[in-house]
Amino acid sequence: MKEVLIVGRKEMQEMLKTKSTLIFALFLALFFSIFPAMGISKADNPAVSLNNSVFYLSLTIGVFICYMLTGQVFFREKQEKIIETLLCAPVSLRTLWLGKVLGVALPSYSFSILSAISIILISNIFSRTFLFPSVAVILHLLIVVPLFIASVVGLMGFVQFLLGMRENRIIGLLIFVVIFGALYGGVGGIMRSDFVVSWLHVIALLTVSVLLVALTAYLARYLSKEKIVTTIS
Amino acid sequence: MIEIQNLTKDFNGKTVLNGISFEVEEGEIFGYLGPNGAGKTTTLRIILGLLKPTTGEALVMGKNLGDDEELRKRVGVVLESDGLYDRLTAYDNLDYYAQLYGISDRKGRLKQLLEFVELYERRNDKVGDFSTGMKRKLALARSLIHEPDILFFDEPSIGLDPEAQRMVRDLILRLSKEEKRTVFLNSHDLDEVQRICTRIAILQKGKLKAYDTVENLRRKFSKPVVEITFADSKEADKASHIITSLDFVSDCERENARIIVALNGKSSSTLLKTLIGESINVEELKKVEKSLEDVYLDIVRQEERGE
Fold first, then answer.
1. In what order do the strands lie in the sheet with B2-11?
2. Considering its fold, how many domains does chain A have in total?
């Protein structure tokens, strides 16, 4: 566990020292939160609209940022062959992988929380009544979002470690299109009042997150140093 | 210390290593040589536990490095890539590994190492701003953090200026002689290997072509070479025609009134008798000491010629 924290802390330290990444993540989190939030008060049902926005945007923004950071933590380390030296250190591959997952998931989740807080604050500035997300959405934010982000980081990290550079670039581009499309296209949909976030949605997403975590843990067994090293170049 | 037993590695049906066996003893500096693509990096990766052999074994202190985290604490590596994080400072790079290796007095150890590689003043600078040589020095410092018993260096002097190259050489010699550490040196720098290695192995196309001390290899593999000085270049001209027609001469190189001849089978006295018999005025004939580079090239070319 101590080694997981060492690896995770180093990944976060590296991110903090990369200003361009931080600024871009911050811009992304705020841009996709502030503009929809400004329209919440004008919606037919502002409370429903706020719930929808927090439910959807906190997750998609977190996933977008974790996609961005995963590339820097897993793919870049492999591309620059740093991973080879790291694999010679007295830590297991699983520890390294978990540490990296932690190092990406935590900052990504922080940006999710930031986007949720921004949405709540901005919507209240423009609204005459006090708006606050429902209990289901709060639990979604506190449990489902971090779990989902962690499982996505784990899965993407697994893929980036396992596949070659060219395959990784192709898959990375596809994932980018899907996430960006979901983020950009979904903003309009969530403002409509005919979609109402319920416990059912939260539980369904929680189930998906748990299944993703289980899948990632299962797939991690197939990760080996040999697979990583032989797909470096 | 390191035992390689009948090591074979296949990648997608292609044999990259073919039944390699050698041993590296405690405290020795072992040079591992071979042209690009010979299988040196694959051997190193198998020893370090990054790859699994198809058959055979690569043992370090009787165990497989890949399976034993405790054993990895006794091994230091500098691989082809420096393995440094460009966005972190020199200090943070070392500190990360110091934590992973469980070093107790990190501050003191890091200061000592950074001063040793003359990077203490630059400790708070990002590694991305460092020159290749500085990065190499930092990587060397990182490999020594935990005071390992065995060091694996893959081209440690690459990109270094002559002064830094000398520093690396002196460091390796000191680690081996004074501190009895074992060094496995994967290198293209034959001069470096000749100066510091006690034993070497030469690998070509996945097969071990030679494995012995530098002196023994010189004796075993190098063909005798003589340097003949003639009275003038006219004599050298005449001699050159005669020498090149002799069947026991494998190579002949002319430099004004001097000719360097590589002999194949017969001795230098036979050559001298032949020249005197042809009334050539020989001023001096001396045997030439072969360098490791000559031995290495002989071995590699021998294989290329299919001998």
1. B14-24, B2-11, B55-60
2. 1
- B91-146 pLDDT per residue, tens: 999 999 999 999 999 999 999 999 988 899 999 999 999 988 889 889 999 999 99
Distance set, CA B52 to CA A94, B58, B204 (Å): 18, 9, 20
Interface A–B counts its CB contacts (< 8 A) at: 75
Q: A10 contacts in B (CB within 8 Å)?
A: 88, 92, 96
With an 8 Å Cβ cutoff, are B50 and A13 in contact? Answer: no
DSSP string across B148-196: -SEEEEESTTTT--HHHHHHHHHHHHHHHHTT--EEEEE-S-HHHHHHH
Tell me the C-alpha distance between A199 and A181, whole Å.
25
Nearest CA in chain A to B126: A17
Does the predicted interface ipTM exceed a cut of 0.85?
yes
What distance in Å separates residue B59's CA from the closest CA in chain A?
A: 15
Say whether residue A84 is in contact with chain B using an 8 A CB cutoff: yes
Count the Cβ atoms, other than its own, within 10 Å of residue B158. Answer: 16
Contacts of residue B49 in chain A, CB cutoff 8 Å?
A: 88, 225
